[in-house]
Design a protein that fits this description.
43% helix; single chain; 14% strand; six-stranded parallel beta sheet
Length: 706
């Protein structure tokens, strides 16, 4: 059996993890140690040697990207695609499609993303006559999320209400509005799943009997609700394997509960622990650097810190590069990538930052150097206004109770229905919003009635056709409402980009149709999309936060902005717990690199008010000073590189040519040509290197800073 092909290619510790089934198993797996391989091979082994059907094995991970990778590996090995390899939220959504009726919801519920939730909170504040300027929707959303995720939400609500008397009223109204719209917000997916399993014994028994084995990846990032969900599903059985690395726990700020992995043996008695410390990703020098960082961990973390090792070669030196300012830092990174990518291959370079504001200068430098790039994170495709506008029409075909989609589709483009009109329609709501509009029709004046009649006729078409041909229906919506003309009028600066996004949406709908996905499935997947799902596999360098890079790897990594107050964050200075998390985050950044690692910081950086202030390099540098090198200073001409090619080419400073906000080196945008960097200004004419169309000379009057 040990000669089984499923076990071939596994090291001894990996085999030990794959073959253990006698008790709960905790696999402490360091970065790059092959944890995905262990999970997929264990699933294969269960199917082949224990005869467990693939659809009776549940495997949960934290990203859609990781889930898809597992599915592909398993399907390639055993010729069958697994049904239950997914993220926690995907599992919960699938569960609720089958069980939501137990808590009074229809199975065709919609999932509200962050923007939908905040928009609903704004509506609630308005209904309660609370000033949005004073009662911040973003802050309220965070509080609601914390209340929902707590072990005792009722108690937590009371605690928040002591210092914020309005919270209870807003919370209860928000929940009522969600229920009326047959909608769940992102937190609800897991919370409602646990609620059903906890309060309905027959449902719990059915789902416990559904799976013979459960495996969970990235266990260090689970929160209390996810841990509770697993305990409910496992029951008193020992058929569970969890994999994780406490050193990579970087999400406590959004509810991750590290005690889940640190105290796993207490919750699951008889647990066996297997450590995977052999790293297959990075060179020895990179691992020595990473081990030096994480070895300084304190408290209960220290007991479960792994020491990574590899039999790969020593590798290239790791350089710490101090730069004069943020512009020089960005130029160095761009120049170094340009130099290293001699063959024009940029896809395996990544620039990691602690905070998103650092990306702007890097983007400018990339454009100036003609480096194709992609910024990972930020506004996701399905959260873009124009995409949500068209999807609102389609969502009503799936869930006619969805008020957010009704309001959006009715008012984009404007049809003369204001707040009072919407209130009147709400007073006529009984079963669905289209019927409520019909019942309110006579209340409006003649010109509005004409527009409402066009809307009702369009929605009749949508309701009849959307589920059968979503892409064709979307095209019809765009044409009938004159959406391109609306975009041109509403978004003068970037309407063409928005039109392209609509075209991309239609392509996505077409692809979903070809794959046999229902409209419900399409909406579910789009609502659960993560930042990593947007990664472009084309030949582009990646710019992202360290959080966004979790689970990824690149040949060459630059970690920028290694300054006190940035990395580690200023919030960590007076909080030892947060400082420990910043340390783990730095460890994650280092271990993304396979062969080359550059660490950079600016000696001074512009602060608020556009004033440059001196910085102090990150305290984490002191922990790794024995494992890094500084560039050799060049005594010859400034343009001549030293043997490490680390000398930065001297560049002229940005300047103002006349009374204008546009200056040399600035990242600008043109309505037609898109993003570019100003190379030269003569009089009122600027020479701009545009990302898409190359160099153009244009009056500064037609340029806007980004």
């Amino acid at each position: 059996m040990l000669n089984d092909p499923i076990l071939s290619g596994l090291n001894e510790r990996q085999k030990e993890a794959v073959l253990h089934f006698d008790s709960p198993l905790l696999v402490l797996a360091g970065a790059g140690s092959g944890k995905t391989k262990v999970i997929t091979h264990k699933i294969m082994y269960l199917v082949k040697h224990y005869g467990i059907p693939l659809n009776r094995i549940l495997a949960i991970t934290f990203t859609n990207k990781a889930a898809e990778e597992m599915k592909e590996r398993i399907e390639k090995a055993i010729g069958e695609k697994p049904q239950w390899v997914m993220t926690f939220h995907s599992f919960a959504a699938k569960f609720l499609r089958m069980e939501a009726e137990n808590i009074g919801y229809d199975r065709n519920f919609v999932i509200y993303d962050e923007e939908d939730s905040k928009k609903l909170i704004k509506k609630v504040l308005k209904d309660l006559n609370l000033n949005e300027e004073k009662f911040k929707p973003d802050k309220i959303k965070d509080i609601i999320s914390k209340i929902k995720q707590d072990d005792n939400p009722e108690d937590q609500l009371e605690i928040y209400s002591i210092s914020n008397s309005y919270i209870k009223t807003v919370f209860e109204k928000y929940e009522e509005e969600l229920k009326n719209s047959n909608a769940f917000d992102f937190d609800d997916l897991l919370i409602k799943t646990v609620k059903i399993l906890s309060n309905h014994p027959e449902v719990l028994e059915r789902w416990r009997n559904k799976f013979d084995y459960i495996l969970v990846d990235e266990y260090q990032d689970t929160n209390r609700i996810q841990h509770k969900l697993l305990k409910l599903l496992v029951g008193d059985k020992h058929t569970i394997t969890v994999v994780g690395d406490p050193a990579q726990c970087i999400y406590t700020w959004r509810g991750a509960h590290p005690e889940n992995i640190l105290d796993f043996e207490k919750d699951f008695p008889g647990t066996k622990i297997v450590k995977l410390e052999r790293n297959y990703r990075s060179t020895k020098k990179i691992l020595d650097c990473a081990n030096a960082v994480i070895s300084k961990s304190k408290g209960k973390w220290k007991g479960k810190v792994l020491t990574l090792w590899t039999d790969k070669e020593e590798g290239e030196d790791i350089f710490l590069v101090p730069l004069e300012n943020e512009k020089e830092e960005a130029r160095f990174i761009a120049n170094k990538i340009k130099q290293l990518a001699q063959d024009g291959s940029y896809g395996d370079f990544a620039v990691l930052v602690r905070m998103t504001f650092l990306t702007r200068n890097i983007e400018e430098a990339f454009i100036s150097n003609g480096i194709p790039y992609q910024v990972i994170g930020g506004l996701k495709f399905f959260e873009r206004a124009e995409v949500k506008d068209i999807l609102a029409y389609l969502k009503l075909a799936v869930n006619p109770k969805d008020y957010a989609s009704f309001e959006r589709s009715l008012t984009v483009p404007p049809r003369g229905v204001g707040d009072k009109g919407l209130e009147y329609i709400k007073s006529n709501f009984k079963t669905d919003w289209i019927q409520a509009l019909k019942d309110s029709y006579e209340r409006f004046n003649k010109s509005v009635k004409i527009k409402l009649q066009e809307y009702l006729e369009l929605m009749e078409y949508v309701l009849e056709n959307a589920k059968f041909s979503p892409s064709k229906t979307a095209k019809e919506i765009v044409e009938r409402i004159g959406y391109q003309e609306y975009l041109q009028k509403e978004y003068e600066k970037d309407w063409e980009d928005r039109v392209e996004n609509i075209n991309e949406l239609i392509i996505a709908l077409e692809e979903a149709e070809k794959e046999g996905k229902t409209l419900d499935q399409f909406f579910e997947e789009s609502a659960l999309m993560q930042a990593q799902d947007t990664i472009d596999n084309q030949n582009k360098a990646k710019i992202m936060t360290v959080h966004g890079a979790k689970g990824l790897e690149f040949d060459t990594v630059f970690v920028a902005g290694l300054e006190e107050g940035i990395f580690p964050s200023g919030r960590a200075f007076d909080d030892p717990t947060q400082l420990e998390e910043e340390r783990r985050l730095f460890y994650v950044a280092i271990t993304r690199a396979k062969n080359k690692l550059y660490l950079t910081y600016a000696k001074e950086r512009k602060s608020y008010g556009n004033k440059s202030v001196p910085t102090k390099r990150s305290q984490f540098i002191d922990d790794i000073k024995e494992h890094i090198k500084l560039p050799v200073k060049q005594k010859t001409q400034p343009n001549v590189s030293n043997r490490h090619n680390l000398t930065i080419k001297s560049q002229s400073k940005s300047y103002f040519d006349f009374d204008s906000d546009i200056r040399v080196g600035m990242l600008v945008k043109h309505d037609v040509f898109g993003k570019g960097v100003v190379k030269k200004i003569v009089g009122k004419n600027a020479t701009v290197l545009f990302e898409k169309v190359g160099e153009k000379t244009i009056s500064v009057d037609f340029l806007k800073s980004v």
